[in-house]
Structure formats: structure tokens, C-alpha cells
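Write out this protein's structure.
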Amino acid sequence: MSALILKGKNNDWEMICGLEIHCQIISKSKIYSPSSTAYGSDVNENVSFIDVAMPGMLPSLNKECVRQALKTGIALNAKVNKYSAFARKNYFYADLPQGYQITQDKFPIIGEGVVKIELENGETKEIGIERLHIEQDTAKSIHDISPTKTFIDFNRAGVGLMELVTKPDFRSPEEVGAFLRKLRSIVRYLGTCDGNMDEGSMRCDASVSIRPVGEKEFRPRAEIKNVNSVKFACQAVEYEANRQLEIYESGGSMEQESRQFDPVSGETKFMRKKEYAHEYRYFPEPDLLPLVLTDEFIAEIKADMVELPDEKKERFVKELGLTPYDAKVICENKETAEFFEKAAKGHDAKKVANWLMGDFFAMLNEKKLTLEQSPISAENLGELVELVTSNVINGKTAKDVFEIMAETGENPSKIVEEKGLKQVTDTGAIEKIIDEIIASNPDNVASYKAGKTNLMGWFVGQVMKASHGKANPTLVNQILVQRLD
């Protein structure tokens, strides 16, 4: 089992965790205004009067943000609510110019669903989805320009967000990490969010509590705000569970509170007492009508759905003969899966997967390149595999050709032809080399015949050396066995 069990003096304790994940919606304009959502623009460049709440400015709902949220909900096997409505969530902070956030409260666009995650030990677990609703993002507070002032960049204010709320189904940091990676993979496949946690376009709040194993009631929880990487999320929930254990074991008690994770110290630190829903004074948004989805609109979205990671992985295993592990690694990233399919088209898919996950990934890491920057195209990688499969070159020569491809980006067949690297499959030529080596090494021949059969490897090596690595290894072994035995 993957559950995190904490050892106390008298009890074993278990961690209880639920996540709230904010995903910035991919759209050209913001959710309630026509301002651009382009990342990396100059400070306060993508700002309209609506974004900074100038008097008399009214929001207008972006249909593309609705479409993207609906696609995500369908991919999460969740209920689509044909009727949803907007509300104002009231709180005062410098990054919220209106003094309230336009969000969804009682009537979200997406209801309950389920996501299946896979753990390192091969187990699977279903994580319940409570809801997914759409809302506007806040501005960005910048604290490191001045020691006495906070600066505000409103480029992010009003960017569309999907907030996904899970049920408290997580029992270990590993499960949290597996879910975040799965969700990130899904939204990237869909094109609904880029999933770049380091850029803030996907952020995670984790609510953590603990309770004695066997106890059914939930205890007060701490909400860890705005964690910006999968690694930090795993570290944060584990630290927080152990912190709460120390409190209970020393006779203390917990109150609901908000905390932040410090990646330098690896600790969570107190921010404020946890707000409750009634403190936000939710009320219906008067400037936006309820959202009513037609059957035709929902059907249009479903018809436009792409093949998702789980579906693609299953197809790769059944149709292409990959192992479940290989398929999982390749399908986690949409671009990698598409690259693999191009490379494997018409070739031995399993051998292509081996090259992709071995030499190819190692080359990208060594050169610090992304997949898009690879000097070796998918088609050329597939052709290299085919040269080996069809015995044009052997495995050792293929490694040499691969290195040249990594430097020049050239076609492998062209490299093989120009450098004269084709494999020697002429039985007569190989027999001549073998006969010369046997004649020159009578002592080793005698030792082999006397029982030192491990010398076969030495003989093969000598033949490959004499043929400059071009001899077909299978033929070499066959002929050597005939001659020596």
C-alpha cells in the first residue's frame, strides 16, 4: 500500500489530503475582458479598464474559456452541469482590484468525477473529483523590488482559471505526485492549460490533516497555499503530516489555518487562520447571466476530444506491443507520444521505443535540448532502427551512426552509404576472416576445445575487430560454432 503511516507513541496515524488545483485556461483573451493572455509581456501591458475594475466596466464571458473547461471536465470523467451560475467571492487584497472575485459557488460548470492514478508499485487508485469551476485569476504581487513596498503586475488579473477540487482521497505524498502529473498530462493533451507550474499557470493548494488509523472523523486541517511544483507538493504534505503528528503527540490541538511551503527549508510556515466560506460573503454575480449549455454544444465538444494518455497507452500496448511501463513513460507527454508514433510508423515499435527511451533521451539530456530542438527527427530515428532490423548495419555500427546524426542531423542511410558502414553479410568473406583468426591462434582453439567455451566471446571480438565492426554478429557466431566444434 502507498499510504503514509505515521508512528506515534500509542497510535499509528494516517494522512488525509485533498487538493485544490488552479489551471490557467489557454485562450487568447481573458475570461471577462478582451485583454491578451500572452505570457512574458512587459509589466502591466495586457490590462484593460475591466481588469482593474474601473467604474462602469462590465464583464463579458469568454466562450472559449467555457469550451476549455468543458473539455477538461469530460476528460476527467466528470458530470457536465448544463446549468451553472457565477458568484462574487468577496475579500480585500491588493492583487484583487474589484474587491471580489467573479467565480462559481453553488452551481459549478462541472460536477463529480474520477481520475485513476498509477503508483510505483503497480497499484492503481481512483481519486474522486468534487467539482471544477471557472473563475478569474488575480494580479501578481511582487515583493522583491523594494524592502518596504509591494508592486502589482495586473497582466495576470482576469486570466481565466479552472479550479479543480478533489475529494480528500490522498493518503501519501506519492499519490499526490501521481495525481498532479496525471492532471498535468491530461490538460496538456487537451490544450486547455500548459501545466507549467514553475510559471504559475498551474498551482496547487493542499489541505492536510491526520487522524489515528481506524478513526473515521476528519480533524482540523492546514491548507498549504500556492505550491508550484510536483516535487514541492510531495515534500509539503509529508512535512505537514509530520508536523501535526508532533503537535498531537505532545498533547496539543490543531486549528484550521493557511500555511505556505518554503522550498529552501522544506518546511510549511504559518500564514493566517483559515477562512471559511461564509467569510467570503458569496452572492450571485449581478452582471453575468447564468450559463446554460445546450446538448448541441456539449456534443460538439465531445466530438472534438483528442485521444487521452490512458487511451493512447492502452493502444500502444495492444497494437504496437509496448510494455505497460514503456507506454506509460512515452504517453505521459503528448509531444513525446506523437514523436514516437512518427518514428515507429512502418518499423518495429518496440525497438523504436528502446532507442527513444535509451540513447535518444540520453542525447537530449546531455545536450540540454527539448524534444522540439532535437537534431534527430522522428523519421530518421525510425529509419535507423529499420537499418538494424533489416541487417543493413549491426547494433554497434548503429550507435556510431546515431552519434553522427546527433551532431549533423543527417539521414542515417546517407551516413551509412557515404562512410561505407554497411554490414558484411557475405558468408565467404566472414569465413575467410574466421579461418585466418583460427589459424593464428592455435592455443586458444585448443583451450576452447578443452572446455573453455567462454573463449567464444574472444573469437567473436577478434572477428568484429578484423571486419572493422561490419560483420554480421549472427553469422559470425554461427560460423565460429561450426568451425570450432
